[in-house]
Every structure is written in C-alpha cells, then in structure tokens.
Amino acid sequence: MVVRKLRDAMRSPEVIKTFETAGSPPAYLDSAEFTRFVEADSARPIAAVKMIGEVE
Questions:
Q1: pLDDT tens for each residue of 4-33
Q2: Neighbours of 19 (CB within 10 A)
Q3: First vs last C-alpha separation in the chain
Q4: Are the CB atoms for 27 and 41 separated by under 8 Å?
Q5: What is the spatial distance between Cα 27 and Cα 19, in angstroms, rounded to a whole number?
Q6: Is residue 3 a contact partner of residue 30, using CB atoms and an 8 Å limit?
Q7: What is the C-alpha to C-alpha distance for residues 33 and 27, in angstroms, rounded to an integer?
Q8: Element holding 38 (H helix, E strand)
Q9: Given a cut of 90, is residue 1 above it in pLDDT?
Q10: Which of 19, 30, 31, 38 could disulfide-link 26, Cβ–Cβ 3.0 to 4.6 Å?
Q11: How many CB atoms lie within 10 A of CB 9?
C-alpha cells in the first residue's frame, strides 16, 4: 500500500514540479530497480579509485 502511494505521488504534477525546481529528476524506482541503480552508481567511483591506486 505504501509503495503504491509513493509511486502515485511521484507521478503527481505538483511533486514532479517540486523535484524539477530543486534540480533533481523525479523518478520512482521499485526495489529491484533501485538495487540495480545503486549497484551501477556505486561501481563508477569504485572503478575510479581502483584506477588511481591505493588511497591513504
């Protein structure tokens, strides 16, 4: 029920406008989509740190 309410809220023109005004793209991701997003997003800095080498 909460998930449905959150998903519906993220489709609201008022909420979309608020996010856009703040400079953040409005998006709703379910659990599986969010997990994939976090995994992909965290892979970029990990790869950059590995390229730099050991960081003290």
A1: 898 999 999 999 999 999 999 998 998 999
A2: 14
A3: 46
A4: no
A5: 9
A6: yes
A7: 11
A8: helix 31-52
A9: no
A10: 19
A11: 13
